[in-house]
Amino acid sequence: MSRKSRKVSSESLSVSAAQKAYVRKHLLRTRRIRLYQVIILIGFIAFWEISTHIGIVDSFIFSSPSRVVKTIAKMTVDGQLFYHIGITLLETLISFALVNIVGLFMAIILWWNDSISKVLEPYLIVLNSLPKSALAPVFIVWLGANMKTIIVAAVSVALFGSIITLYSDFKAVEEDKIKLIYTLRGNKKDVLLKVVLPSNIPSMISLMKVNIGLSLVGVIIGEFLAAKAGLGYLIIYGSQVFRLDWVIMSIVILSIIATGLYKILSFFEKRYTK
Amino acid sequence: MSELLRIDHISYTYHSLDGETPALMDVSFHVNDGEFLGIVGPSGCGKSTLLSLIAGLLTPSCGSIYINGKDIKSSGKNIGYMLQKDHLLDWRNTLKNVTLGMEIQHKLSDNSYVQINELLNTYGLITFKKSFPSELSGGMRQRAALIRTLLLEPDILLLDEPFSALDYQTRLEVADDIWGIIRKEKKTAILITHDISEAISMSDRVIVLSNRPGTVKQIFDIKLSISDRTPFTARSAPEFREYFNSIWKELNHDEQEK
Fold it and tell me: For residues B252 and B210, is the Cβ–Cβ distance under 8 A?
């Protein structure tokens, strides 16, 4: 039997007028969306600034965009800002790394040994559903009011969910793909290295996107309770001494950091999944 | 033709908390060197279990399997197994996919690439060496899966409904392809299928299994009076219908007994 030829129909390179119109319409729409987004931001900032000036709200309690900018400028000059940002970032990145490494390691152990996973299952569920902020005071007593406590608190926020998610993803690998490795005379290690881990890279990256956010949350909770530096410390201290400029500034910077870290991981995700 | 594989009174039972399910009962047959053996049977008759037993993925509840007169575990012979789907790994390109087995068995050396390229070239995949599975057609994927198995130099090839996931036209094409490759490489093969025509068109002998628990009901020697036999031309052989009807009757007879 002659093999049927698979001809690819050559696509016409000339673009019709209707297509051009469609593309133009799409671009216009995208531009309009962007415009509204900017308008909302500028409008909000302007409204805030103006209302503090004409006395609708008290800038002592609500701060104001100009005061925030001034505070940022002042703290940039004396270097304090970078110090606090640096501390928070460092704690976040250490916690994030620990969550991912320990989480992956634990998930592999649970996947490898069914009995261990069955035995540990109820404990994992309890630890995962427990509000971790309840544990923070305990960590302070055990570990002291220092960076160690903050990192342990942050790790505890993200770790257990991470283990459970990874483990169930590992378990969801197609049964026949595992059989394939065995038909090629592979062993359990080959199943792990050739199928389970590589097939789960996309889910690991999306889990990392969740973990980076949770690590930041954990670090801020920890800093509220046990820090002498960092953005969380700045927020809690600022609110106690009525320096609302510090509080608002820290929140603004936190939202920038959170978005930035998320974007970095999205970039890797896109590169990996193409 | 000398005998290569002997299945000697094997039975297999699955155990679960709901009870035990006998899948195979006292199955015996043999396969000659270089033979293409087809096995047909109703769904759930333990066909796949049989292949898993031969491949050594399962151990028979009783009975033994011999290759060249030696027990399968100690024979040191390689058995290639093709699953229902190609199961190429999405994150590996064609070259990386076909070398998966060699990688696992630590057989991959610089010298092996000569042989790999030769096979890829012969079976029309050389230009797709760097392509990922999503870019290959169903037939190409199936050929890549076969090359992956062939590179391990199996003495016996087990085919577990390898075409069932393909549409009908591709299926005829790929069956011709795969059959040609197996004949050319002079491999012994066991094909499992529920498609009677497929079994007759490809095999030298066809074994009919009964309903669960599967036993050998009948063995048909397929002798077709055509020159230049391929699975496709076999379908137009005068004896084809006769074989089809007898096997069909054998299978249906089983249904009525139930």
Answer: no
* Strand (E) or helix (H) holding B8: strand B3-16
Nearest by Cα to A209 from A166, A136, A264: A264
For chain B, how many structural domains are there in total? 1
Closest by Cβ to B104, choosing from A194, A198, A201: A194
Question: Closest Cα to residue B100, out of B57, B151, B54?
Answer: B151
Give percent of chain B above pLDDT 90: 14
pLDDT digit string (tens) for A255-271? 999 999 999 999 988 88
The shortest C-alpha distance from B52 to chain A (Å) reads 9
Helix (H) or strand (E) holding B81: strand B79-82
Q: Are A162 and A211 in contact (CB under 8 A)?
A: yes
Which fold is adopted by the domain A70-273? MetI-like fold (1.10.3720)
Could you tell me the residue range of the domain that residue B84 belongs to? 3-257
For A8-45, letters b (16+ CB in 10 Å) and e give eeeeeeeeeeeeeeeeeeeeeeeeeeeeeeeeeeeeee
SS3 call for B157: strand
Residues of chain A scoring pLDDT < 70: 1-13, 274
Picking from B104, B107, B159 by the largest number of A CB atoms within 10 A of its own CB, the best residue to mutate is B104
> Is the Cβ pair B57, A183 closer than 8 Å?
yes
Cis peptide before B154 (omega within 30 of 0): no
Distances from the Cα of B108 to the Cα of B100, B101, B129, B156, B157, angstroms: 9, 9, 17, 21, 21
- Contact between B89 and A181 using a beta-carbon 8 Å cutoff: no
**pTM of this prediction?**
0.82
Instruction: Confirm or reject contact between A144 and chain B (CB < 8 A).
Output: no
Which CATH number does the domain housing residue B224 bear?
3.40.50.300
pLDDT level of residue B93 (50, 70, 90 thresholds): very high
Is the distance from CB of A173 to CB of A195 less than 8 angstroms? Answer: yes
Question: Using CA atoms, how far apart are residues A120 and B240, in angstroms rounded to an integer?
Answer: 60
**Predicted ipTM of the assembly:** 0.84
Q: Per-domain residue ranges for chain A?
A: 17-57, 70-273
Average pLDDT over residues B11-21: 89
Q: How far is CA B176 from the centre of its chain?
A: 14
